Amino acid sequence: MLALIFMFTSIVQAIFAHAKKNPSKLCVVDDAKALTYDEYVKKALKIGNFLKLLGIKNGDKILVEASQSVDFLAVKLACHLIGAIFVPFIANCPAQKVISFIQKITPSLVLLNRMDDERQESITTSALTISSLIAKASCSECLTNFSFPEEHDVSEILFTTGSTGDEKGIMISFANNVAIAENVIHGVLMQEDNIEFILSPFNHSHGLRRYYANMLKGATVVMQNSVVYVKNVFDKIDKYHVNSMDMVPSALTLFLKLSQEHLSKYQDSMRYIQLGAAPILEGNKEKLRKLLPKTKLYNMYGSTESGVSCIYEFSSDTKANCIGKPAYNSTIFVVDDKRQEIKSNREQPGYLACKSKANMLSYYGTNTQSVTDVLQNGIVYSNDVV
Description:
Blueprint: H1 11-21, E1 26-29, E2 34-36, H2 37-53, E3 61-65, H3 70-81, E4 85-89, H4 95-105, E5 109-112, H5 117-122, E6 127-129, H6 130-137, E7 154-161, E8 167-173, H7 174-188, E9 195-198, H8 205-217, E10 220-223, H9 230-240, E11 244-247, H10 249-259, E12 272-276, H11 282-291, E13 296-303, E14 307-313, E15 325-326, E16 330-335, E17 341-342, E18 351-356, E19 362-363, H12 368-372, E20 375-376, E21 379-385
Parallel strand pairs: 1-10, 3-4, 3-5, 5-6, 9-10, 9-11, 11-12, 12-13
Antiparallel strand pairs: 1-2, 7-8, 8-19, 13-14, 14-15, 16-17, 16-18, 18-21, 20-21
Helix pairs in contact: 1-2, 1-8, 2-3, 2-6, 7-8
């Protein structure tokens, strides 16, 4: 069993501690750059200082277009150093969609991957491209007057689509993220020399939370925008000695199709592959078992509201419709439609409920009833039938 003894109240504090302990250790890698922990921290400190010069202050919300890049993650870290709330959104969406997010959260600043004519004409809130922000911040001094976030401060607002199709902003605390990271670390038996290739998008909670786990552990994250460039994936695996991977099931389907049998080359070095955010095709599970017979394979069950709730290791276990065992910080039980705990079976199914330190703070900008429909007394009630 892996002992978890973390004294950090935030992922931010963990990153800085690892930068002090192992400054030259590789931290984050993308298509353009590879930064050590020391380089990553200094980059974030410069961005944080520049954001303060722009007038960003504690409690301000910053809306940021997502990308699988070191710059995106450094902006996130910088926001947390100055007390700003980070709000990522999906890349390459039309201007009207960006405006809808702006109307929902009223950010003090919008950071974009690109500024085309349509966006420039439509967006009236203060906005910059991430590349221009990074270029200007590179000439800035490092932030010196800062403190680490408090554990119950809001770290981010993550937007998800509910069963009704309505987008909900989910408020996550720094303590939530530490608890989720612990769930991942414990679930995959993550080691300090972990080098994980994260192919899940960072606008989504699943991808971000794998990054958090590696940062809490002091490990290394490699990233890329798409599995379509399969040669680049394998080049990075070889160059950086990747020993674990994360992706969503749709990306796995494409990756297996494009890579053919090449993945089997890594059966002695790939410690685990974790997947989540959607059901995995049974055929894909079987392909992974055959290609990587020595690799641990994990399905992470959960939601944006409750993080990783259950973990199913399907390397050798072939139970149908199984979601595994409760995660490290999660207590799972089944309730009826009146939220009374029951023992469910095929004849009398119930609804899955989760009590966890990882559970969200609340929904952003919604009425009390909307919150209590899902979260009550620290328990997230789902509509998942078990």
